[in-house]
Structure formats: structure tokens, C-alpha cells
């Protein structure tokens, strides 16, 4: 059939110019519907799965209903941008770069997935059970769609998470896990001058939590703690009744999350002793993306094919998270960030390198063919969860 770059760019312009922030269900549904039609035209079975009214649907497309899944592709239809961003700075091409909200993370990569499968050699495509997931809430921790992703991943032999590559083209082999909490503190107000002893400071308790949580930090072990936002109090001469913070805990080793929860228990006991009420809301959660059995062999295919094509293929670790965190949690060999090359994601100047479209199509097509040649898809998909 051949890759039609002009058609790809026209279609990319269409979906980039749709506002589809994570909290815009109508926008993510429009993008999902556009991609759904692309898969339908290829003969894929498609379904838009509702995961609640807060977000749009999950698009699931497959070329065969049977399990196990040989190759699972994962992308997302949401962006971090607010409504109106698409009209403020619509899709454009300047020189050798593409611009627009979500063009890099990750509408260009989601559309690339559809074109990759469209242009796979027929005999290869027919020999594989392929499943594609595009979820609407990756930028808010896939809070609503994670069960759909995990259930599909449990039957998958390999997973390609089509997040964008780094500016230098490198891909991701490991990611940290994350526990993201919103913590509310309720104390007792009192006059700060006449009766400070009668008050119970919510802010003092919040500060105690930050100091204690920071003792968990071990950068060499991949553990970080960040109190990203804090709020509290009313006026300087009143012992503060209310305080709130958002806490971001990241870790590389699955065992390290135990220390975090032990610390939470200790701190809740301290708050009770200080007569402070505490309410903890989980606003984000992902296990780490780890190096499961079969992952090194998968990466070696990328590296070998890259050498054959005179393309540098490199892998690195990342402190960020993606849906690859879920696939490896059920033991699926996964490569992440294998999509388009660009930079400045989540900003108003994010971009995609135009030449990377054809480069990534060629590389991924050759990788899938080489995996088939090595009979890697003949392996069992039985997994042991490490969540």
C-alpha cells in the first residue's frame, strides 16, 4: 500500500485541532472515534469501552478475538491542555518540525500506530493476534482505564507502548512507580496570641509530615518525595484549622513502596496523638515498570534491527510514568517510548521531528518482522503478577 505522508499529516492536523484534555470526555471521544474508523477500515474489530462519565471511552481494536494477544499496542487520546488551546495554537508545520497541542504527546504517536498496522506486510499481519488500546486518561494516571489495560495485558506476549521517544531518539526500558496523594489536615482554630495552647495547628502537622516523609529520600535507590503543593491557614493571628498538600512519592524497586505505607501509618498515629484529623485521597498510582523476563530479548531485537538500518537505538531509565508500568506489573515484556522523536512535551512549544515519522514506521515494521522470524510470538503468555 505504501505510506502516504501527506495523508498522515492531514489527519494529524484534524486530531491535533481537537481539544482533548483528560477532563474533556467529548474531546477524547472525538479523537477515539477518528482512530476507530482508521482501524475499522483495516478490518479490525473495535469497541469504545465506557470507563465512567468523568472521561471519554477507551478504544479497543483487534484483528482477531482469540487470545492470547501476540502484540499489544498502547497509546492515549488525552493531552494535558485545557479547552481552547487547539484554537489558540493549532497544528502547523515549520521547517522540519510539527507543532500543536499534543502533537508529540501523543497524538502523532497514536496516529502512527494506526498507520504502522495499516502498512504491515499482509502475511505478517494475518499471522499475529494484534490488540490496540487508546485510553482517555493517561495524563491523569489512567485512573479510570487501568483495569481495561491490565486485563488485556494479562493475555499479551509483548507490549509496545507508543509514547514518544526522547529528543535524542532514546527509548525507555524502566520507569519509576508512583504514589500520588492529596492529604487534608483538620485542626482546631484558636487565637494565636491569647490562647495558642488551645489550638491544634493543621499546618504544623503538615510540616511534620513533610519532614518525616523526606527521610525516605534515597536518590541512589531511585526514591524521591515531593510535596508539590501546600495550602492552609487563613490569617497570621489564628492557629490554622485547615491545611492540604499534594504529595508525590516515586520509587524504582517494588519493595520500597512498603516503607512509604509504613511511614503513612506512623504519621497517621502522630496526627491522632496531636488531635489532628487526616483524610488521604489517592489521586495517582502506578507500579514501577521493571525489567521482566523476556524484556532484554525484546530490546535486543530493536538494537539489532537498528544496527542493520544504521539507526541508533538506545534505552534508558525514566523517573516518569506511563501505561508501560501496568503491562510489566503483570509480567509482559515491554518497550516504551518507541514513537515519534521530538521534544518539549506538556509545553506550548512541543514539537515532532518530521523525518522521524518514516524512520519510526520503518524501524517498527522491521522489528515486528524480526520478532516473527525469531519465532518470539510462539512463546507462552502465562504471566506472574508483580503488583
Which terms would index this structure?
single chain, 387 residues, alpha/beta, 6-stranded mixed β-sheet, 4-stranded antiparallel β-sheet, 16 strands, elongated
Detailed description of the structure:
By secondary structure, this protein is of the alpha/beta class. Helix content is 34%, strand content 24%. It contains 11 helices and 16 strands. The protein has helices at 5-16, 25-41, 85-88, 103-118, 122-127, 146-153, 202-213, 256-273, 295-308, 324-329, 356-373, and strands spanning 45-49, 58-62, 69-76, 92-94, 97-99, 130-135, 156-161, 171-175, 177-186, 224-232, 242-251, 277-286, 315-318, 334-336, 342-343, 351-353. Strands 1-2-6-3-7-14 form a 6-stranded mixed beta sheet, with helices on both faces. A hairpin with an 8-residue loop joins β1 and β2. α7 (202-213) packs antiparallel against α8 and α9 (295-308) crosses α11. The protein is elongated and about 80 Å long. The chain starts with a helix and ends in a 14-residue tail after the last helix. 45% of the residues are buried. The model has no long low-confidence stretch (mean pLDDT 96).
What sort of overall outline do the alpha carbons produce when their principal axes are compared? elongated
Overall average pLDDT: 96
Structural class category: alpha/beta
Number of strands: 16
Percent of residues in β-strands: 15-25%
Sequence of secondary-structure elements = HHEEEHEEHHEHEEEHEEHEHEHEEEH
Largest sheet: 6 strands, mixed
Query: What's the total helix number?
Result: 11
Helix content: 25-40%
Which segments are poorly predicted (pLDDT under 50) over 5 or more consecutive residues? Answer: none
- Strand arrangement across the biggest beta sheet: 1-2-6-3-7-14
Supply Rg.
Answer: 23 Å
Q: Termini separation (Å)? A: 42 Å
Amino acid at each position: 500500500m505504501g505510506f502516504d505522508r501527506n495523508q498522515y499529516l492531514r489527519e494529524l492536523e484534524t486530531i491535533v485541532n481537537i481539544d482533548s484534555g483528560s477532563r474533556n470526555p467529548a474531546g477524547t471521544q472525538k479523537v477515539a472515534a477518528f482512530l476507530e474508523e482508521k482501524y475499522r477500515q483495516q478490518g479490525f474489530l473495535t469497541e469504545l469501552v465506557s470507563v465512567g462519565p468523568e472521561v471519554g471511552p477507551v478504544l479497543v481494536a483487534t484483528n482477531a478475538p482469540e487470545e492470547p494477544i501476540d502484540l499489544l499496542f498502547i497509546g492515549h487520546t488525552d493531552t494535558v491542555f485545557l479547552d481552547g488551546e487547539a484554537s489558540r495554537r493549532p497544528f502547523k508545520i515549520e521547517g522540519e518540525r510539527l507543532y500543536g497541542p499534543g502533537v508529540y504527546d501523543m497524538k502523532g504517536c497514536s496516529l502512527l500506530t494506526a498507520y504502522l498496522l495499516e502498512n504491515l506486510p499482509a502475511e505478517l499481519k494475518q499471522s499475529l493476534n494484534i490488540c490496540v488500546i487508546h485510553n482517555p486518561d493517561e495524563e491523569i494516571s489512567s485512573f479510570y482505564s487501568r483495569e481495561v489495560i491490565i486485563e488485556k495485558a494479562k493475555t499479551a506476549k509483548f507490549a509496545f507502548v507508543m509514547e514518544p521517544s526522547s529528543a535524542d531518539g532514546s527509548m525507555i526500558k524502566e520507569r519509576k512507580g508512583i504514589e500520588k496523594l492529596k492529604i487534608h489536615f483538620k485542626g482546631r482554630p484558636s487565637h494565636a496570641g491569647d490562647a495558642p495552647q488551645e489550638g491544634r495547628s493543621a499546618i504544623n502537622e503538615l510540616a511534620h509530615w513533610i519532614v518525616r516523609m523526606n527521610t525516605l529520600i534515597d536518590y541512589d535507590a531511585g526514591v524521591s518525595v515531593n510535596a508539590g503543593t501546600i495550602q492552609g491557614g487563613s490569617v497570621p493571628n489564628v492557629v490554622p484549622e485547615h491545611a492540604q498538600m499534594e504529595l508525590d512519592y516515586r520509587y524504582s524497586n517494588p519493595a520500597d513502596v512498603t516503607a512509604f505505607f509504613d511511614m503513612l501509618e506512623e504519621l497517621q498515629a502522630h496526627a491522632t496523638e496531636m488531635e489532628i484529623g487526616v483524610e488521604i485521597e489517592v489521586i495517582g498510582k502506578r507500579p514501577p515498570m521493571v525489567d521482566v523476563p523476556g524484556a532484554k530479548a525484546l530490546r535486543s531485537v530493536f538494537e539489532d534491527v537498528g544496527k542493520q538500518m544504521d539507526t541508533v537505538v538506545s534505552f534508558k531509565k525514566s523517573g516518569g510514568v506511563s501505561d508501560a508500568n501496568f503491562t510489566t506489573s503483570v509480567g509482559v515484556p515491554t518497550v516504551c517510548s518507541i514513537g515519534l522523536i521530538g521534544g518539549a512535551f506538556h509545553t506550548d512549544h512541543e514539537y515532532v521531528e518530521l523525518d522521524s515519522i518514516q524512520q519510526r514506521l520503518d524501524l517498527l515494521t522491521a522489528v515486528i518482522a524480526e520478532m516473527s522470524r525469531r519465532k518470539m510470538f510462539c512463546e507462552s503468555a502465562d504471566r506472574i503478577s508483580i503488583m
